[in-house]
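Question:
When you can, review this sequence-structure pair and walk me through the C-alpha coordinates.
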Amino acid sequence: RPETPVRLRCPCGPVTAFVPWDGRCSGNPVRFHSVPAFAAATDLAIDVPGHGKVVVDIGYGGTFYAFLSAEQLGLDVCSSKTRDLVNAASAVTEAVKKQFKLHHPESEDLAFLYGTILTDGKDAFCEEPTTNICVFADEQVDRSPTGSGVTARIALQYHKGLIQLNQTRTFRSSTTGSLFTGKAVQATKFGDYNAVIVEVSGEAFYTGTATFTVEEEDPLKYGFFFK
Protein backbone atom coordinates (compact mmCIF):
# COMPACT_ATOMS: atom_id res chain seq x y z
CA ARG A 1 0.00 0.00 0.00
CA PRO A 2 -0.80 2.51 -1.36
CA GLU A 3 0.73 1.31 -4.62
CA THR A 4 2.21 -1.93 -5.94
CA PRO A 5 5.00 -1.90 -8.55
CA VAL A 6 4.67 -4.52 -11.29
CA ARG A 7 7.69 -5.07 -13.54
CA LEU A 8 6.82 -6.25 -17.04
CA ARG A 9 9.21 -7.72 -19.57
CA CYS A 10 8.12 -6.15 -22.86
CA PRO A 11 9.67 -6.66 -26.32
CA CYS A 12 11.24 -3.20 -25.95
CA GLY A 13 12.66 -3.93 -22.49
CA PRO A 14 11.58 -3.82 -18.83
CA VAL A 15 8.69 -1.49 -17.97
CA THR A 16 7.49 -0.81 -14.43
CA ALA A 17 3.78 -0.26 -13.81
CA PHE A 18 2.37 1.10 -10.56
CA VAL A 19 -1.05 -0.12 -9.42
CA PRO A 20 -3.05 1.44 -6.54
CA TRP A 21 -3.70 -1.16 -3.83
CA ASP A 22 -5.72 -0.76 -0.63
CA GLY A 23 -5.03 -4.21 0.77
CA ARG A 24 -8.16 -5.71 -0.76
CA CYS A 25 -8.35 -4.70 -4.41
CA SER A 26 -6.59 -2.64 -7.05
CA GLY A 27 -7.80 0.72 -8.29
CA ASN A 28 -7.21 3.54 -10.76
CA PRO A 29 -5.42 5.33 -12.23
CA VAL A 30 -2.63 2.93 -13.15
CA ARG A 31 0.66 4.40 -14.38
CA PHE A 32 3.87 3.11 -15.91
CA HIS A 33 7.40 4.33 -16.51
CA SER A 34 8.59 3.80 -20.07
CA VAL A 35 11.82 2.57 -21.54
CA PRO A 36 14.02 5.49 -22.74
CA ALA A 37 12.09 7.43 -25.38
CA PHE A 38 13.58 9.73 -27.99
CA ALA A 39 13.08 11.74 -31.16
CA ALA A 40 14.41 9.74 -34.11
CA ALA A 41 13.73 12.49 -36.68
CA THR A 42 11.92 15.82 -36.79
CA ASP A 43 10.51 17.88 -39.66
CA LEU A 44 11.16 15.06 -42.11
CA ALA A 45 9.73 15.67 -45.60
CA ILE A 46 8.01 12.58 -47.00
CA ASP A 47 6.32 12.14 -50.36
CA VAL A 48 3.02 10.31 -49.76
CA PRO A 49 1.25 8.97 -52.85
CA GLY A 50 -2.14 10.62 -53.19
CA HIS A 51 -1.27 13.35 -50.70
CA GLY A 52 1.98 14.90 -51.90
CA LYS A 53 4.70 16.19 -49.59
CA VAL A 54 4.02 16.09 -45.87
CA VAL A 55 6.25 16.81 -42.88
CA VAL A 56 6.47 14.17 -40.16
CA ASP A 57 8.24 13.60 -36.87
CA ILE A 58 9.38 10.12 -35.89
CA GLY A 59 9.47 9.23 -32.22
CA TYR A 60 10.34 6.12 -30.24
CA GLY A 61 8.41 5.17 -27.13
CA GLY A 62 8.96 1.41 -27.08
CA THR A 63 8.35 1.24 -30.81
CA PHE A 64 8.63 3.77 -33.62
CA TYR A 65 5.75 5.93 -34.86
CA ALA A 66 5.43 8.67 -37.45
CA PHE A 67 3.52 11.73 -36.25
CA LEU A 68 1.80 14.46 -38.22
CA SER A 69 -1.34 16.56 -38.04
CA ALA A 70 -4.33 15.15 -39.88
CA GLU A 71 -4.73 18.61 -41.41
CA GLN A 72 -1.67 17.99 -43.60
CA LEU A 73 -3.66 15.19 -45.23
CA GLY A 74 -6.80 17.27 -45.66
CA LEU A 75 -8.51 15.60 -42.70
CA ASP A 76 -9.73 16.45 -39.21
CA VAL A 77 -8.70 13.95 -36.55
CA CYS A 78 -11.85 14.72 -34.54
CA SER A 79 -14.50 14.71 -37.27
CA SER A 80 -13.27 12.84 -40.35
CA LYS A 81 -14.43 9.29 -40.97
CA THR A 82 -12.25 6.71 -39.25
CA ARG A 83 -11.80 4.82 -42.54
CA ASP A 84 -10.42 7.96 -44.20
CA LEU A 85 -8.02 8.53 -41.29
CA VAL A 86 -6.89 4.90 -41.40
CA ASN A 87 -6.27 4.99 -45.15
CA ALA A 88 -4.27 8.22 -44.92
CA ALA A 89 -2.22 7.07 -41.91
CA SER A 90 -1.44 3.76 -43.61
CA ALA A 91 -0.24 5.59 -46.71
CA VAL A 92 2.10 7.66 -44.53
CA THR A 93 3.43 4.54 -42.82
CA GLU A 94 4.25 2.85 -46.11
CA ALA A 95 5.87 6.01 -47.49
CA VAL A 96 8.06 6.50 -44.42
CA LYS A 97 9.15 2.86 -44.52
CA LYS A 98 10.40 3.35 -48.09
CA GLN A 99 12.03 6.75 -47.61
CA PHE A 100 13.60 6.71 -44.14
CA LYS A 101 15.81 4.12 -42.44
CA LEU A 102 15.30 3.70 -38.71
CA HIS A 103 18.00 2.87 -36.18
CA HIS A 104 17.58 1.48 -32.68
CA PRO A 105 20.53 1.91 -30.26
CA GLU A 106 20.36 -1.64 -28.89
CA SER A 107 18.41 -3.91 -31.22
CA GLU A 108 17.93 -3.69 -34.95
CA ASP A 109 14.98 -6.06 -34.51
CA LEU A 110 13.15 -3.04 -33.06
CA ALA A 111 14.17 -0.71 -35.91
CA PHE A 112 10.87 -0.75 -37.75
CA LEU A 113 7.96 1.67 -38.05
CA TYR A 114 4.97 0.28 -36.15
CA GLY A 115 2.46 2.83 -37.40
CA THR A 116 1.40 6.45 -37.84
CA ILE A 117 -0.34 8.68 -35.31
CA LEU A 118 -2.44 11.51 -36.70
CA THR A 119 -2.91 14.45 -34.34
CA ASP A 120 -4.84 17.68 -34.01
CA GLY A 121 -1.53 19.56 -34.25
CA LYS A 122 -1.66 20.83 -30.67
CA ASP A 123 1.85 19.89 -29.61
CA ALA A 124 2.77 22.93 -27.51
CA PHE A 125 2.02 22.62 -23.79
CA CYS A 126 -1.60 23.30 -22.93
CA GLU A 127 -3.98 22.34 -20.12
CA GLU A 128 -6.58 21.18 -22.66
CA PRO A 129 -6.42 17.61 -24.04
CA THR A 130 -4.81 17.03 -27.42
CA THR A 131 -6.46 14.43 -29.65
CA ASN A 132 -4.88 11.74 -31.78
CA ILE A 133 -5.61 8.45 -33.52
CA CYS A 134 -3.06 5.64 -33.67
CA VAL A 135 -3.10 3.38 -36.74
CA PHE A 136 -0.66 0.53 -36.24
CA ALA A 137 0.34 -2.93 -37.47
CA ASP A 138 -2.13 -4.17 -40.10
CA GLU A 139 -4.34 -1.05 -40.17
CA GLN A 140 -5.48 -1.60 -36.60
CA VAL A 141 -6.83 1.35 -34.61
CA ASP A 142 -6.07 1.69 -30.91
CA ARG A 143 -9.06 2.29 -28.64
CA SER A 144 -6.84 4.42 -26.41
CA PRO A 145 -4.39 7.28 -27.09
CA THR A 146 -1.73 4.49 -27.02
CA GLY A 147 0.82 4.01 -24.24
CA SER A 148 3.90 3.75 -26.46
CA GLY A 149 2.44 6.46 -28.72
CA VAL A 150 1.94 8.93 -25.87
CA THR A 151 5.46 8.08 -24.71
CA ALA A 152 6.92 8.84 -28.14
CA ARG A 153 4.86 12.01 -28.53
CA ILE A 154 6.00 13.32 -25.14
CA ALA A 155 9.61 12.57 -26.13
CA LEU A 156 9.17 14.59 -29.32
CA GLN A 157 7.55 17.51 -27.52
CA TYR A 158 10.33 17.52 -24.93
CA HIS A 159 13.00 17.34 -27.67
CA LYS A 160 11.44 20.34 -29.40
CA GLY A 161 11.27 22.37 -26.19
CA LEU A 162 7.47 22.42 -26.21
CA ILE A 163 7.19 20.90 -22.73
CA GLN A 164 9.43 20.64 -19.70
CA LEU A 165 10.12 17.83 -17.26
CA ASN A 166 7.09 16.98 -15.09
CA GLN A 167 4.65 19.02 -17.16
CA THR A 168 1.60 16.79 -17.49
CA ARG A 169 -0.33 16.67 -20.75
CA THR A 170 -3.64 14.96 -21.43
CA PHE A 171 -4.17 12.91 -24.59
CA ARG A 172 -7.55 11.89 -26.02
CA SER A 173 -8.39 9.07 -28.41
CA SER A 174 -10.44 10.39 -31.33
CA THR A 175 -12.20 7.04 -31.68
CA THR A 176 -13.42 6.40 -28.12
CA GLY A 177 -12.68 9.60 -26.22
CA SER A 178 -10.57 7.71 -23.67
CA LEU A 179 -7.89 9.74 -21.89
CA PHE A 180 -4.27 9.19 -20.89
CA THR A 181 -1.92 11.62 -19.20
CA GLY A 182 1.79 11.72 -19.86
CA LYS A 183 4.85 13.56 -18.64
CA ALA A 184 8.62 13.32 -19.02
CA VAL A 185 9.97 12.52 -15.56
CA GLN A 186 13.69 12.03 -16.21
CA ALA A 187 16.23 13.00 -18.85
CA THR A 188 18.64 10.25 -19.86
CA LYS A 189 20.81 8.95 -22.72
CA PHE A 190 19.99 6.01 -24.96
CA GLY A 191 22.88 5.23 -27.23
CA ASP A 192 23.64 8.49 -29.05
CA TYR A 193 20.14 9.85 -28.42
CA ASN A 194 19.10 12.34 -25.77
CA ALA A 195 16.12 10.53 -24.27
CA VAL A 196 13.53 10.77 -21.51
CA ILE A 197 11.71 8.39 -19.23
CA VAL A 198 7.98 9.05 -19.63
CA GLU A 199 5.22 8.36 -17.14
CA VAL A 200 1.88 7.45 -18.71
CA SER A 201 -1.27 7.18 -16.62
CA GLY A 202 -4.79 5.98 -17.36
CA GLU A 203 -7.60 3.71 -16.28
CA ALA A 204 -7.09 -0.06 -16.42
CA PHE A 205 -9.63 -2.84 -15.99
CA TYR A 206 -9.45 -6.61 -15.76
CA THR A 207 -10.40 -8.36 -18.99
CA GLY A 208 -9.43 -11.94 -18.15
CA THR A 209 -7.17 -14.29 -16.24
CA ALA A 210 -4.90 -17.16 -17.25
CA THR A 211 -4.10 -20.35 -15.35
CA PHE A 212 -0.87 -22.28 -15.92
CA THR A 213 -0.68 -25.90 -14.80
CA VAL A 214 2.38 -28.08 -14.18
CA GLU A 215 1.90 -31.84 -14.34
CA GLU A 216 4.42 -34.04 -12.60
CA GLU A 217 4.66 -36.35 -15.62
CA ASP A 218 5.83 -33.49 -17.86
CA PRO A 219 9.58 -34.05 -18.49
CA LEU A 220 10.01 -30.36 -19.39
CA LYS A 221 7.97 -28.90 -16.55
CA TYR A 222 10.95 -26.94 -15.23
CA GLY A 223 11.91 -25.54 -18.63
CA PHE A 224 15.00 -26.19 -20.74
CA PHE A 225 18.10 -24.49 -22.17
CA PHE A 226 19.53 -24.37 -25.66
CA LYS A 227 23.31 -24.69 -25.91
